[in-house]
Design goal:
By secondary structure, this protein is an alpha+beta fold. The chain has 15 helices and 11 strands.
């Protein structure tokens, strides 16, 4: 009769030994041989009349190995289902496990497996952490800039004869050259459009009055500054931080000039921006935009607080791992096998992800955070409606319910939506446990903080 023994062999690592005797697997092996003899097609013999000895000689070793391993696997998972140890991944066969089984000498076999146990840990108290809610104050300039952006977005493109406005769009070809404007052999050439106001003030002044067919030579890092230089480098096919590319000279051949005539600020335009809101005056528009901008920056502030919560939980939760087991699993458990060196290099990042998974699972379980079927449907419906935006889809919306029904049958879609919603609930719960101090910051300062959290 099969037996199972378990012993500790390291930090959070146990060995499970499955011992099977021939009585455990021999009956099923002999049964399989008889089944083969009834169905085997071998020249010279009628179907079902092949001698058992020949079947055993031809197929016995493979069937024998299969039945032994099937018996071992059955015993292993019966034990795990009964004892329910809290383990990572799947058991890993120990290297000492025998692989050469002898069909002509059935006997007892011992198979060893290694299991990695999940650690016990305590979560830190969020109420005792130091957190800051960085708030962005919505200014009149921010509201006016948004109005201008919308006027331009909804405006009409014209083609003036010459450059005379900082909002002119310059359509040109950009060719790599030397300081004198001579093309560089093997250099880049690319068509692109750029706003005049993106150039430095000195070059803006130089370009005033230029027409289609005119050209100008400049050095990139002396013509664009800050994020405008980074944007231009990327438009020309370089990395935005490429210092060598920033020093290149460029000849800009102007092809044509554009200018967007801004939309008039009237009720028709207001209704396009906020349909059904009955906005009639510029002041009404500003109030609506101010509320919308504030809502956006409040959500960004909360995201940044969530990042602080993430790091607080990760940094202040003490947790140990069965490292040797997990490194072995990294080598064999993924889609592509890894070398021991690759697993060693990947382990720090992997262990941090694993740590967060255990922390978040604990919070979700302890606080009974769950997502209902109605919440899934409503979220999917909202996503579809956002996708279509302000498009006129008519009054008959029965198709939408049918479309959501199909989405609810897509396991990947449901899983993705569930994970997003339960994560939102997790961070919502965690943020509610904090007592953050408020601090006013600029939009640029908040955006700079957000570069640090891409978790």
């Amino acid at each position: 009769m099969a037996t199972v023994a378990r012993e500790n062999i390291g930090l959070l690592t146990d060995k499970i030994t499955i011992s099977i005797s021939k009585e455990d697997y021999l009956p099923s092996f002999e049964k399989k041989l008889k089944e083969y003899s009834k169905t085997a097609n071998i020249p010279g013999f009628r179907k079902g009349m092949v001698p058992a000895g020949m079947i055993k000689k031809m197929y016995g070793a493979g069937i024998f190995n299969e039945e032994v391993l099937r018996t071992v696997e059955k015993e292993l998972y019966t034990y795990l289902n009964q004892e329910k140890p809290d383990i990572f991944a799947q058991p890993l066969p120990l290297e000492t496990t025998p692989l050469n089984l002898d069909v002509n000498n059935p006997s007892q076999y011992d198979f060893g497996f290694e299991i990695g146990l999940k650690p016990n840990f305590d979560l830190p108290e969020l109420s005792k952490g130091s957190f800051t809610l960085h708030k962005v104050e919505v200014t009149d300039d921010m509201v006016n800039e948004e109005i201008t952006r919308m006027q331009i977005k909804g405006g009409k493109m014209t083609e003036p004869e010459k450059i005379d406005n900082e909002d002119n769009v310059i359509n040109a070809s950009f060719t790599e050259c030397d300081a004198s404007g001579n093309p560089v052999e093997g250099g880049f050439r690319k068509d692109n459009s750029v706003l005049l106001k993106y150039f430095t003030p000195a070059l803006q002044k130089q370009l005033m009055g230029k027409k289609g067919g005119d050209s100008v030579v400049f050095q990139l890092n002396k013509t664009f500054e800050g994020d405008k230089l980074e944007m231009m480098l990327q438009d020309l096919g370089f990395d935005k931080h490429d210092a060598a590319a920033a020093e290149k000279y460029v000849k800009m051949d102007i092809e044509k000039i554009g200018l967007i005539e801004k939309r008039e600020l009237n009720e028709e335009f207001f209704n396009e921006i906020f349909p059904g809101r009955d906005i009639k005056t510029i002041d009404d528009l500003k109030d609506a935009l101010r509320a919308e901008i504030a809502q956006y920056w409040d959500s960004q502030s909360m995201n940044q607080l969530h990042d602080q919560v993430y790091h607080f939980l990760l940094d202040n939760t003490k947790m140990e791992f069965p490292e040797n087991f997990l490194k072995r699993w990294l080598q064999t458990g993924g889609e592509k096998p890894k070398t021991a060196e690759e697993a060693e290099n990947d382990f720090p990042g992997f262990s941090q992800q694993l740590k967060w998974t255990l922390i978040s699972d604990r919070i979700i379980t302890d606080n009974k955070l769950d997502v209902s079927a109605d919440e899934l449907r409503n979220s999917m419906k909202a996503d579809v409606m956002r996708y279509f935006g302000n498009m006129n889809m008519g009054g008959d919306m029965e198709w939408l319910d049918s479309y959501i029904d199909r989405m609810m049958k897509d396991e990947k879609q449901v899983d993705s939506t569930y994970r997003r919603l339960v994560t939102e609930k997790l961070f919502g719960w965690a943020a509610a446990q904090t007592k953050p101090a408020e601090k006013k910051v600029s939009p640029d300062e908040l955006v700079g903080m957000q570069h640090n959290h891409q978790h």
